[in-house]
């Protein structure tokens, strides 16, 4: 997402508990991708419950992997919001830079973006029609869309890109209308999202079909040499193929300003 301004990244895992290991592993991996690609930590906000690295069910304490036999994606991960601080209200407050609305003790880190800046958002969890779940709260599509609209009107970014992994993910994003916002969902509004890589040693899934393909693409390409459009073509092909292998149907969808398609990351 190259631009003259700053690059901001907001990563949120909406689950807690060992059963949903893959959700937090996805966000830890996404942090490593952002960090590796030179986004400074002060411009990344991570919301992760943080109850799996040292969970009693973890056979290797302090270790989180996102693919079979993969690298540990936990070291260095920012813990800006953990436990009960991982909420829909805090997510929206962080996104629009509203320090007063953030509910937490200790430092409050928010996106302090300006009109020349770009914002990348990645959300991973369960969802339903127009709903994205946080551990003890709910993010509704209309609240997400309204927050983005208000930010656009207030010139809080030059462009925004949202990637969202959840069941019925398309229903969170299909009302996007602002000319400088582009979004990709793991599946269409009527479909489910599916986990992948069941790990017998850990007795849980390590990732999800969409997030695995997105993060794998980010790990294997030079970001300046690819566009969001090229990445979407990759996701359309590979997510559908992996879903078919698993005997399910998943259709990644894109919404909003397709002109951002041509932009490099």
In short:
With 265 residues, this protein is α/β, with parallel strands linked by helices. Strands 2-1-3-7-8-11 form a six-stranded mixed β-sheet, sandwiched between helices. Strands 4-5-6 form a three-stranded antiparallel β-sheet. It contains six helices and eleven strands.
Q: Would you give an account of this structure?
A:
- The protein has helices at residues 21-36, 88-96, 141-153, 170-173, 209-220, 228-245, and strands at 7-13, 44-47, 118-124, 127-128, 131-134, 137-140, 159-165, 181-185, 195-199, 204-208, 253-256.
- With 265 residues, the chain is α/β, with parallel strands linked by helices.
- The chain has a six-stranded mixed beta sheet, sandwiched between helices. The chain has a three-stranded antiparallel beta sheet with strand order 4-5-6.
- Helix 1 runs parallel beside helix 5 (209-220) and helix 5 (209-220) crosses helix 6.
- The chain is globular, with a radius of gyration of 17 Å.
- The mean pLDDT is 95.
């Amino acid at each position: 997402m190259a631009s003259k301004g700053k690059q901001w990244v907001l990563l949120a895992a909406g689950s807690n508990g060992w059963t949903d290991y893959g959700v937090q592993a996805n966000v830890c991996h996404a942090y490593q991708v952002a960090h590796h690609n030179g986004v400074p930590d002060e411009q990344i906000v991570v919301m992760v419950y943080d109850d799996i690295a040292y969970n009693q069910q973890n056979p290797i304490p302090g270790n989180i992997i996102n693919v079979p036999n993969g690298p540990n994606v936990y070291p260095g991960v920012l813990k800006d919001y953990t436990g009960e601080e991982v909420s829909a209200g805090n997510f929206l407050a962080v996104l629009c830079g509203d320090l007063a609305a953030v509910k937490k003790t200790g430092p409050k880190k928010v996106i302090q973006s300006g009109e020349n800046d770009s914002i990348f958002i990645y959300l991973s969890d369960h969802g339903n029609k127009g709903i994205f779940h946080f551990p003890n709260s709910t993010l509704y599509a209309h609240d997400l869309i309204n927050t983005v609209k208000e930010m656009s009107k207030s010139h809080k970014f030059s462009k925004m890109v949202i990637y969202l992994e959840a069941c019925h993910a398309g229903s969170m994003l299909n009302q996007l209308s602002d000319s400088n916002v582009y979004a990709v969902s793991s599946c269409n509004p009527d479909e489910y999202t599916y986990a992948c890589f069941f790990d017998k040693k850990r007795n849980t899934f390590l990732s999800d079909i969409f997030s695995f393909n997105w993060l794998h693409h980010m790990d294997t390409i030079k970001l300046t040499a690819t566009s969001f459009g090229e990445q979407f073509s990759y996701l359309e092909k590979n997510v559908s193929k992996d879903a078919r292998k698993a005997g399910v149907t998943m259709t990644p969808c894109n919404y909003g300003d397709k002109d951002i398609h041509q932009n490099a990351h």
